[in-house]
Please model this.
Amino acid sequence: MKFFIDTADVEEIKDLASTGMVDGVTTNPSLAAASGKSFLDLIAEICTVVEGPVSAEVTATDFETMMKEAAVLRKIAPNVAIKVPLIPDGLKCCKALSDDGVMVNVTLCFSANQALLAAKAGAAFISPFVGRLDDIAVDGMNLIDEICEVYANYDFSTEVLVASIRHPMHILEAARMGAHVATMPPKTLRQLYKHPLTDKGLEGFLADWAKSGQSILGN
Ligand code: E4P
Model:
């Protein structure tokens, strides 16, 4: 499973990229606006830190303007994935860009039928938002299960990019379902390392080792 981080905080991206766990980055207009940086500069900077796909979202809602925005964004770096919303013009844009060899991430997916449309439009990634479904008392992970099943039936190449992740259980369940990618906030990636028995066990080992008076480095 690939791990993307869902943030526009470049310091966080640099820090987590150094762990070797980050395969890509997703941003959205809300995250980009909150960064306070120029959007094009922000995406260019992220692309210097991460080699994998960096999703940059168009903000127009009509086909012509989306295509113009995509033309600007795709020039930033070869690893930019153009993110388009799951609306008719967004999928039209997805088809045109995909036919031209551009990676497209179709975002704001809330149903398996929408995911089917995105795959038919040639999307490289479909982003179903699990947390936002959970928020309205609909099981977000059930959507991932449905999409994985449908995609497997037809051998689509579109990767299931589980988005709007709120906690580590979303990641574990997505991995068990065989989703290709999970995009998560930095905090959630850090949570994956944690287990109280790891901390307790290490504390015990180190306390016992200290009593031995030895040092592996010999000083
Ligand atoms: C994904 O691409 C989106 O940016 C993101 O996962 C949305 O998450 P949220 O529902 O926590 O805002």
